Amino acid sequence: MISSIPKWMIALFGNKLSPNVTVIEITFLSLQIKKIRFQGDISEWDFSIGYASVIRVSETEFRNYTVAYHNKENGVFDIIFHIHGNGVGSKFIESLKVSDELFISPPRGKKLYEQNEQHQFFFGDETSLGVAFAILPLLKKNNHQFQFYFELDEENKSVPELLELENYTVFAKNNSFRNEKWLNTLPLFQTQEWNKSNFALVGNAKSVQIFRKVLKDKKQGNIYSQGYWLEGKKGL
């Protein structure tokens, strides 16, 4: 779905874009990371790993976010938000409080998980923490060997621990993942163990692009990638 829609087109959708979920709980994992629990009718939603929901953040603006946890029986789901900058999406999410109602679409998009691969590697940043949290139970249930790499700002480096993620390494967000030479020195590439793996790369589009190039040059495994944001780009 596009990031903005003209008012005349919004009118055509009518009640389809009316509030359909309610905020029932808010937890701050850091000053920038906000976990919100919503409640609504999600009985027909498809929560495949990697799918994203569209949230209406203003009269004409929409943004994509991934669900971190869901319970269809109770009609609840969590989204972990990275609040930064002065964008309309961040401002809207920052303003939400318990009992607020808003529109969130059913998830859709690109899958990131391939069950048949024994080795699973995941790369991301703050915008990817929800996907990592969602995929962890599957990785453990299916007895995968897995590894998470995160590039995080200093104030967010403890969030993976708070989320009880496992087998993760946190790297400083200093553009290292945009350096092909540095990427090639990562422990991941120093053993043949990970040559045939499922690689899920999400988060900053530039970091994802460079990491993907290194993997393709090495002809390693199955690569699934999705850029969630890019500096200077609105509504990616």
UniProtKB/TrEMBL annotation:
Pfam families: FAD_binding_6. InterPro entries: Cbr1-like_FAD-bd_dom, FAD-bd_FR_type, Riboflavin_synthase-like_b-brl. Signal peptide: none annotated. PROSITE patterns: FAD_FR. Residues 16-114 form the FAD-binding FR-type domain. This is Siderophore-interacting protein. It comes from Chryseobacterium zhengzhouense.
